[in-house]
Structure formats: C-alpha cells, structure tokens
Design goal:
Length: 337
C-alpha cells in the first residue's frame, strides 16, 4: 500500500484533499504532517480522523530530524506538499515566517526526500508566482515568474528550488499552480469566507481600493481533483496550471454574497488598498485539460451557493475561530485602514 506524506493537511485545501481522497480510496495511507499554526484545524479532518489509513503528526516541515524520522518510519516514497504560510496580507505584516516555512521548510522536505529516493514529489503552488496581469492575457506554464508579494515570492523561490532538484538530482517532481480557491473550511482571513461571515454578523465588508481587482475563482474540490490527477498521471519535471476560467472582480463577489444572504449594500466599506496589490490573475489551464483530461466540474453559481450554505450551517466552526487570536489579527489588519 502506498504511503503518501501530505504536508499541511489540517489547512483549507489540504484537509479538503484528505477528506476527498479517504472518502473514496482505501488503497493508500495518508500521513498528515501539520504544524497546526493559526490556520491549521483538526476539526476540518473529522470525516477522516477515525480511518485506519489516516495518520496525523503535529510538527514543522522545517524540522529536519522530525521529517527524517517520518520518512524512515513510514517508508515515504510519495509526497504532496501543501504546507505553507498562505495569506498575502499576513506576509505584508511580517515576511519572515513565510520564508522560513515556504522556502526553508520546502528545502528540508526536498533534502530528506532526496535521501530516501522518493518516487514522486508534488509541490502545490499558486498562480501568484507569475505576478500580475493587465486587462488582457492569461498565465500559461511558460509565463516568467515575477512575484510581487512576500507570500508569492516565497512560493516562487520554493518552486525554483523544486525544479532545481529535478534538474540537478533527477528528483521526480511535479508542480501545480492553481488560482484562488473557495469552499468549506477556508480560514476567514481570505476574501470569500471573510465577506460571508461579516455579512452574517452585519459587520462592515472591507473592500480594498476600488474593488475592481480580478481573481480567477475555483472550487476547492475541482482543485483537489486536479492535484490527484497530476499526482497519478502528470509528467515528471512539468508544471501544470489549474484554473476554472472564472474571472470576477472582488466587488461583484461581495455583492453576490450580500444578495444571497439578503443583506444590504450599506455594509460595503471601501478601505485603504493593499500595498503592491496585484491587479488581475487569470489562468490558462489548456495543458492539464488537453494532456490529462481534467476539467472543472462545478459551476461558480452552484459552488458559491454551497459554500455560503456551508458557513451558515457550520457557525460553531467559524465562531470558535473568530473568538480567538483572530480578533487581534482583525484589529491590526483592519482597524487603521
Ligand atoms: P492554509 O493556510 O489554509 O493551510 C496551510 C496549512 O499548513 C495549515 O494547516 C498550517 O498549520 C500548515 N503549516 C503552516 N506552516 C507549517 C509548517 N512549517 N510545517 C507544517 N505545517 C505547516 O492554506 P491553503 O489555502 O490550504 O493552501 C494550501 C497550499 O495551496 C499552499 O501551499 C498555498 O500556497 C497553495 N495555494 C492556495 C490557494 C488558495 O486559494 N488558498 C491557491 C493556490 C495555491
Ligand atoms: P485574498 O483572499 O487575500 O487572496 P489573494 O490576495 O491571495 O488573491 O484576496 C482576494 C482579493 O480580495 C484580493 O484582490 C484582495 C481582496 N480583498 C479585499 O478587498 N478585502 C479583504 O478584506 C480581503 C481579505 C481581500
């Protein structure tokens, strides 16, 4: 049976990935290594936690001894690397932990993976490494890396390191670069869950700048199905972009959430812009579609409704989050904006 090391499996995308995989497969063991930062939450894994082929280890990917011990104990030959500090705004407040985890942590994983001669190392990355687009054009896999935030630069550095291990050591690596995700279990610092929860609570909705910044939204399950496919069938040494061709300006999403929840637009508050704010992201996913046969299964209309319903039904999940350390973050991020 395949033992797959999944890093960051208690976060938004990683937990959805583990729950999705273990719901349909019992032919692999998942070993989830997660530091449980503010963004990691074991409640996300309730559907999986009792399964015999699921194992959780609390720890830091940059701890060489621990990572070495895990590879040895579980005879790891397959890695899917989600763990990261993932929020642009937090990276602007303080960048050090981003480089520690996203760059040095990835380096530890790669070095140990090299020693244990892994058969596949999948680096889960982001379209933000390509920088920002003007009104036209799409990111393809050959768009030069031009990251603008501390977060995206740390991911770009990690991607380049991963590729260097392919070229230098012939390590069997693959990189996926996905656009903005939404869905259940997303930490309410990111646009969509933050706006849903603030709307439910009749709190102001802080729109950065003119609200016309564009992101290309994909439902988390569509992303994870693509990750699974690339992991199974992707070509070693290649990069695959993942996106659902669903570009929307932020203000349009915010108004849609308000309308779904039957709340008034007076909750909208335009606030000071994010420094270095990327204007537009948009993904060309022709490669994964034509070479691997992936295509998104969810429409934005249905999946955003499901997502809002999930937050309505899972108040206890997000209430526990927003009553804790989150309040301090919220004050620092928004009070002086
Ligand atoms: P998240 O912040 O929700 O979760 C990150 C997880 O990593 C958390 O469980 C956290 O505890 C864990 N973690 C952080 N530092 C760690 C460390 N040093 N050691 C072990 N675990 C650690 O992030 P997410 O949105 O689920 O993103 C997952 C991955 O997908 C990231 O690599 C991110 O760059 C990438 N990605 C995210 C998006 C998006 O829209 N959220 C889009 C494209 C790519
Ligand atoms: P975010 O969810 O942080 O993702 P990313 O910056 O990685 O794309 O932000 C998505 C967009 O929403 C981005 O253009 C910034 C904007 N935004 C706001 O206008 N207000 C907010 O409070 C947040 C968190 C984001």
């Amino acid at each position: 049976m395949k033992n797959i090391l999944v890093t960051g499996g208690a976060g938004f995308i990683g937990s959805n990935f583990i729950n999705y995989i273990l719901d349909k497969r019992d032919d692999c063991n998942i070993i989830n290594l997660d530091k449980l930062t503010y963004a990691g939450n074991l409640e996300n894994l309730m559907p999986s936690e009792k399964k015999e082929n699921y194992h959780f280890i609390k720890g830091d990917i940059s701890n060489f001894e621990l990572v070495h011990y895990i590879f040895e104990k579980y005879k790891i030959k397959h890695v899917i690397h989600f763990a990261a500090e993932s929020h642009v705004d937090r990276s602007i407040l303080g960048s050090e932990i981003f480089y520690r985890t996203n760059v040095l942590g990835t380096n530890v994983l790669l070095e140990v993976a090299r020693k244990f001669e892994v058969e596949k190392f999948l680096q889960v990355s982001t379209d933000e490494v390509y920088g920002s687009l003007g009104k036209d054009g799409l990111f393809t896999e050959s768009t030069p890396l031009s990251p603008n935030s501390p977060y995206s630069s740390s991911k770009a550095a990690a991607d380049m390191m991963v590729m260097s291990f392919y070229h230098t050591y012939k390590m069997p690596v693959i990189i996926t670069r996905c656009s903005n995700n939404y869905g259940p279990y997303q930490f309410p610092e990111k646009l969509i869950p933050l706006m849903i929860i603030n709307s439910i609570n009749n709190k102001k909705l802080p729109v950065y700048g003119d609200g016309l910044y564009v992101r290309d939204w994909i439902y988390v399950i569509d992303h994870n199905k693509a990750v699974e496919l690339v992991f199974e069938k992707g070509k070693i040494g290649e990069v695959y972009n993942i996106g659902a061709s669903n570009e929307l300006p932020n203000i349009k999403i915010i108004k849609l959430i308000l309308s779904y929840l039957k709340k008034g637009e007076e909750l909208i508050e335009y606030v000071k812009d994010r420094p270095g704010h990327d204007r537009r992201y948009a993904i060309d996913s022709t490669k994964i579609q034509t070479q691997l046969g992936w295509k998104p299964a969810f429409t934005f209309e249905n999946a955003i409704a499901d997502t809002i319903e999930w937050y309505l039904k899972n108040e206890s999940w997000w209430k526990r989050i927003i009553s804790g350390e989150y309040q301090k973050y919220y004050e620092i991020q928004y009070l002086s904006r």
